[in-house]
């Protein structure tokens, strides 16, 4: 995002963003990097050293549908969490390889709220690395970011879900669709809300503006907490003919 002489905000077009990202990647490839957490020199793709990547808490033991972390005593792969057993989920499966630990929250908050847009590279590559070794992981036909209302987009300057989606689409060589599915109702930020308030807050927030001619989509966001947002989004996608909606988020927070 830049400001013109008239002080109005100009958003880079997707083409410009891709070009700028590729130039930055080429230039920074030759510059020695330091781990964001421990400041050790690192040449890994992620700006985190191997030790700090290994210290991120994985969401290995989780509900096989919504990826909510489960008690260690519960056997995995055989159970759905209480929430999935008692409520209808519109999405099919959530892939969320990390827990929303303090370290992950640091990365995601910097990315989202402090304009560290290049953190999208770190976060998406962490996701790709972990997700590729999962059992039953099936690629979708198209990547769709959880849309942001234009009012919030103007305030923040970018949609974090779209930034992650661009990298996923490029890595997996999949189409990216960010214009057919929109957020047409402005909603309050959900971070401090209870689960029931989150659910009400996102009702009727989404709209399929143009037909989506795919049967299997991956809906991308940065973090999943209660799942109200992605559940409402998946409901609207399914009403519009999508058969299978997977949800990809970098991290999974516990339920409120
Ligand atoms: Zn480190
Ligand atoms: Zn569940």
Descriptive overview:
With 256 residues, this protein is an alpha/beta fold. The chain has one domain (33-252): Rossmann fold. The protein is built from nine helices and eleven strands. Strand 1 (2-3) and strand 2 form a beta hairpin. The longest helix has 16 residues, at 14-29. The chain starts with a strand and ends with a strand. The structure holds zinc ion (ZN) (2 copies). One zinc ion binds at residues 63, 65-66, 68, 80-81, 83-84.
Q: pLDDT below 50 for ≥5 consecutive residues: which ranges? A: 4-10
CATH first level? Alpha Beta
The number of strands is 11
Helix content: 25-40%
Distance between the termini: 34 Å
Characterize the biggest β-sheet.
5 strands, parallel
CATH fold-type name = Rossmann fold
What ligands does this structure carry?
zinc ion
- Average the pLDDT over all residues and give the rounded result: 86
List the helices and strands and how they pair.
Elements: E1 2-3, E2 9-10, H1 14-29, E3 33-34, E4 41-42, H2 50-54, H3 82-86, E5 93-95, E6 98-99, H4 102-113, H5 119-131, E7 142-145, H6 150-156, H7 160-172, E8 181-183, H8 195-202, E9 206-208, E10 216-224, H9 228-239, E11 244-252
Parallel strand pairs: 5-11, 6-11, 7-10, 10-11
Antiparallel strand pairs: 1-2, 3-4, 8-9
Short account of what is shown:
The protein has 256 residues and is α/β, with parallel strands linked by helices.
Give me some keywords for this one:
alpha/beta, Rossmann fold, five-stranded parallel beta sheet, 9 helices, globular, binds zinc ion
